[in-house]
Amino acid sequence: MCGAQFFRARVLEFFTSLFESMKVLKLLPNFLTILRIVLSLFLLFLLLNTHTYFSFLTPFHTNMISSLVFLFAALTDLLDGYIARSYKAKSRFGEIFDPLADKILILSAFLGLVYLDRVNAWIPFVILGREFFISGLRVLAANEKKDIPVNALGKYKTVSQVVAIGALLANLTYSYVFVAIAVFLTLYSGIDYTIKYYKS
Description:
It is a single chain. By secondary structure, the protein is mostly helical. 82% of the residues lie in helices and 0% in strands. It has two domains: 1-101; 118-199. Helix 4 packs parallel to helix 6 (175-199). The protein is flat, with a radius of gyration of 21 Å. Keywords: Lipid biosynthesis, Lipid metabolism, Membrane, Phospholipid biosynthesis, Phospholipid metabolism, Transferase, Transmembrane, Transmembrane helix. InterPro entries: CDP-alcohol_PTase-I, CDP-OH_P_trans, CDP-OH_PTrfase_TM_dom, CDP_ALCOHOL_P_TRANSF_CS, Phosphatidylglycerol_P_synth. Its EC number is 2.7.8.5.
């Protein structure tokens, strides 16, 4: 009898621990979204203060740290989406702040890059203009109950932007090639989505 009680206690303890872990996992996507916003602001602060607060760093170290911070922040976007889908942890907070955090990250990186004169101001204007325009169309499509399927173009666009910004932050010699690809895919995917919206 004591053995059976001990076994039941251990089983109960296991499932209680598992349940607590699941609750933590359901909060993790929102935590990663908040972390992405914090990292974005730190990245902007780093880029704007390379010659003051961070003057003890060499240009090489500043470039590497800023690019790694950006890439890690971009990775949190992939992780929070995966966890939210896998563990059914989608929330209203995530629906609102996840896309907002993405735009804050891109905006922070581009503001710093324009300040450092590594990219022409029209490039972030085009990329961010497209992002906000398509976000507006998505809201309209949802309100009008239009079903516009997501295709691979959007994923290619996102990857190209991350690679381009990472290359610019690392100050790579041929980063302009990645920037050109990102601008092309950004505009092309935006035009493609707009056409699908008006045809649906």
